[in-house]
Structure prediction request, 342 residues.
Amino acid sequence: MTPYSSLVVDDDGNIIISLSKGHKDGLTLICLQLQLTETKIPEDITPKRAEDEEHGLRITCGSSVLQIAAKPPTMNYQKVMDSDEGVKEWTGNIRRWGFCFVDGCPATSIGTQSLIERIAFIRTTHYGGFWRFTSDLSTKDSAYTQLALGAHNDNTYFTDPAGLQTFHLLSHINGGGGASLLVDGFRAANVLREESPEAFRTLCHTKIRGHSSGNEGIAIMPDRAFPVITVESDADWRRSEVTQIRWNNDDRAAMTGLDSRAIADFYAAARKWVEILRRPHSEYWVQLQPGTALTFDNWRVLHGRSAFTGEREMCGAYTNMDDFISRWKTLHFSKEDILNAV
Prediction:
């Protein structure tokens, strides 16, 4: 720690600190005051998601999915493209509900990419940046087939999974099927905690690895394992808020380093977890159409699809969670409120 040689306050209210060797640093009195006094922080500026007592997929009542299906959160493409007020409403919907549709989107790569970039830059992975794909297995991944996909989160093999994912069906000819599935993982986790606390504890405390190694030259696996359910406080797992879901059984690696009892407990908990995910009250099915893009929170909402026939072309991209939260914060809160929460 370098000692200071002098400390003065200038005419503008800045504290100027002179260090050794001629170096100087400074901060404002307002900034110092914010750090030394208790300030009222807007509750929803923190990473927690706001609860809604009557609507939404997070509610544990049986009619939640029916409520969403009747009037899903939806934005107009032009409103999002033309104003930050539109982006504010869009990001607010994603933050509140876990997903949002955007109607009127041009059924083109350019139109869809421009929409995604209204939130932040596109995240590049081993799948590329902005992707456009069909069921041709050009990438060795089950998403590039016509098979049904159960509810899952993407990127469970990354240390930092993508925060948002956007899909846009560009065309589907000579066939049918391919309905999209959304499941609110936070709601499902809270149901699990209510019905089977020990299973919930197991999925919070047992750490497993994911992997992506089906493509030539790709062998992705994080250097440490993560739980299926992340809560804000491991010590207070019975009441602590769920902050992230990592579930993708197809990408799960071998369970090494665990004794037979821990493995048996994990499989029992996973069986209960999957049973909750597959309940009719958990599943929201929707048939995507060209012109309607779907963006969802990949840390919260699991997604899947039914099998399909014919030729189907999709496009979309990932967005980092930190960049999404930054965009959401700066549109919903004043700079003073954001700094107070630092």
About this structure: The radius of gyration is 23 Å.
